[in-house]
Amino acid sequence: MDILKKSFKKSIWVFHLSTAACNNCDIEVLELLTPKYDVERFGIKLVGSPRHADALLVCGSVNAHAKPRFLEVYRQTPKPCLVVAFGSCGCSSGIFRDSYSIVGPVDKVLKEEDPDAKIVYIPGCPPKPEAMIEGIVKGLEAV
Amino acid sequence: MKQTIIPLGPYHPLLEEPEHFKLYVEGEKVVDLDVEIGYNHRGIEKLSESKTWDQVPYLVERICGICSTSHPMAYCLAVEDLVGCEIPKRAQLIRVVVCELERIHSHLLWVGLAGHFIGYNTVWMWAWKYRETILEICEKLTGNRNHYAMFKPGGVRRDFNKEQIEFALEKIVDVEKPIRMLTDAILDDPVIHKRLKGIGVLTKREAVNYSALGPTSRGSGVPWDVRYDEPLDGFKDLKWKVIVQKDGDVFSKGVVRLLECFESVSLIKQALLNLPEGGAIDADIKEVPQGEGCGRYEAPRGEVFHYVRSDGSNMPYRHKVRAPTFNNLPTFKASCKGETIADVALITASIDPCYCCTERVAVVDKNNNEKILREKDLVKLSVGKTKNIMKKIGKTPALYNLEI
Amino acid sequence: MAKKNNQKVMKNLKKKLKKDIIDIVQPRENRIYMRVKPEKAPGIVEYLFSKYKCKLCTASGMDMREGIEIIYHLAKEDENMIINVKTLIPYSKLEIESIGKKIKAFRWIEREINEMLGVKFKGHPDMRRLLLADSFPKGKYPLRKNFKNSDVTDEDYDYERSGI
Predict the structure, then answer these.
(1) CATH of the domain at A102
(2) DSSP string covering C23-84
């Protein structure tokens, strides 16, 4: 736990990954960068490669196309890392739960690869930007 | 100054698919293009068959995050076509208001992202800042910034009260001036003219061959707009016009979108001022008989088409959904040939797909050497080209603020 | 805007295509539904698209008791009319001539109907999967009525085929 506390003490860098999502959550994530909410003032930055990331922001539940790619990105992210299951689809697949195409929500797919993965759940469809900021802060505090 | 990089994504809503592009190149020029989609496939048509007629709007709203009104609207129109009922006037005008609000915020989103691709990050920030005002109006009127849950077959689910209407009228006037300022600044910029004109041309003939839709076809001189071609009763008394441009390049498509924002503002004002006093907001459909119906509506990206078939039970027998990007995506084959790799990101953005850029683009040259370019590589190439143009012209316009 | 006399389109179609139409109805002012035989359908649709200047909205496939019904939805914008061409392909011979080999607008929708319902389109230039992942099990068609959502789970996907 100590190493986790140390890694996340300063501002965290986030890598945004969209699996089978309707993209509403993705747009809300981008809105965090715009002048109204502006998370860059907290030091939260979106990075271009999973290798630089402290946290993985996953929007959408996981379908068959996305599953191997998602697990590959998770493997490339240096541990310790925080995985944020974003939105109803990320937390529980939402209304797409019964579909033939959806393999599972983020935690079910991730636990196959790494049972000890640290996951933060931010529910909502889509979560309001204020909820997102609160969710990430809570996740950091819990860690 | 720090650079803001947007990673894998940002995906636009809609088919909202990260897609995989394969570009075949000779040197710097693209000779052919292949698109693979399906990354966002969630089996919605199959899920519809296990939901009741009233539960389906919740499902179809989540097909796309930005066209989240157009899909329920087209679905409701399809069911109403099947049943053959008339919608009360107040409900029709409320529908017009919500749909046009969505159109403005979708176009502003596109303007921001297109600005980001050519290096005008200020445009991105400004466009999204004014977009926030529209989202505030949506939240006040419907309760949510996106996914409004306003429509049901037969009418709308919630009414507007006086206070909400006054708020909306006040704010929409506030937002008109900044949008006009942004539009004029963008349309007068010589660097943007050099950068966007003549790029990614889709000829009128190709637009018809591919049945392209929305601003993609209207930018090429094909005046298809469902609000005009199949006018809903709500639109019949409102004054507005279809915006068409002739050149078919990225600039024309951008102009169509910007000018449509003004038409939308005018439509919203007219609809709110002409709302009848009181009145029903729901035709109260009790039963959906056997039969079939087609419904279509003009989403910000083009025509959304829904077809429903009923066998008399309380669930659809078949529900077919066709989003506009399905018709528009294959047009890349025609509009990307002969262009440089630096322009590919811009051309893909110009059809405003429900996924802005892909995870990565694979580039194959004539010796069959393949390399992978990520989104940030494409953006870098595109921004580099803008910088070169500025050097040639010899000026840095006031709107420009490149931070590399 | 919509023209008032929409009987015009129905009359035109009956005149041009009289022998090929099994039946044709106009339940509403701007909707026409016509049924044709599978051998005649591609020719009629091509005529409507090219000569009659219709736009392709989409094509729906649906699983009926006797076979797969394909409906081509074409819109004639200047007359505010959607012309729906229905054809029923029997299970005994699930194939139809491809329109996508000549007209680009039809290519993707034919790929989708092929993977979702199992209809073969003869002569299509590029019959790869469109929406389903390569790892989706072969021989299963999601939109058929005998396919339930629970028929395919994570274990059935063959991820090695997706090449990651």
Answers:
(1) 3.40.50.12280
(2) EEEEEETTEEEEEE-TTTHHHHHHHHHHTS--EEEEEEEEE-SSEEEEEEEEEEGGGTEEEE
